[in-house]
Amino acid sequence: MQIHEIHDLSNKHVTELLITSLSGISDTRIIKNYHPDYNNDTGNIFYILQNGRYNLGKGKYYVLENNGEYICSAGWNEYEPDIALILTRMYIAPKHRVNYYVATNILPKILEEVTDYKHVWATVNAYNKALYEWFVRDKLGKRTALFNNWPDIYKNFKPVGKKNIYYTDQYVIELDRTINDQTTKN
Q: Could you read off the pLDDT of 2-15 as tens digits, one per residue?
């Protein structure tokens, strides 16, 4: 597997991989965020890449491929001087969704890069609220899923409620560095 780190659309190979792979999205809940036909929409990944949200030093977008096949992608970007948003515009090819490639390949890289931010937030929209509820149940000590096989890296996050991010209500999960510190000391 190869992970590409990009800031814009100048890498033709990665851009073509994204265009080809994300062109197949038809889910009306997310199509405007990912499909290249909506590249003029301010929330679309192609618009975001073209217009500087992932600028060098203030963000990065990762694309994971295996022998030319798109696996997943996600990024991080500075939201405010003390807040980094992580796992932004995350998309996982449907056939790879149970393999936790983001948790094992992308999230560790992102966490290495956002150490200077006071707050590190991952967000989900209302249509993905079930993901947020996993974190709520975990913090309450309740069973989180049928098989409880999520990677341990997700246990470093805590739910903090709903906030308005980029003019959209989002459920926010924050990196809990006290947990992270305890994990690394053990």
A: 999 999 999 999 99
Whichever domain contains 25, its CATH number is: 3.40.630.30
Name the 3-class secondary structure at 106. Answer: helix
- The rounded distance, in Å, linking the Cα atoms of 16 and 20 is 6
Maximum CA extent, the chain: 48
Domain range for 41 is 2-185
User: Is the dihedral angle over the CA atoms 92, 98, 99, 100 positive or is it negative?
Assistant: positive
Q: Identify whether the C-beta of residue 63 lies closer than 8 Å to the C-beta of residue 4.
A: yes
CB 8 within 8 A of CB 59: no
Q: What pLDDT digit, counting tens, does each position of 12-23 carry?
A: 999 999 999 999
Total tally of structural domains belonging to the chain: 1
Distance CA 177, CA 88 (A): 20
Listed residue (110, 111, 153, 158) closest to 134, CA to CA:
158
* Rounded-to-integer distance, Cα 73 and Cα 1, Å: 13
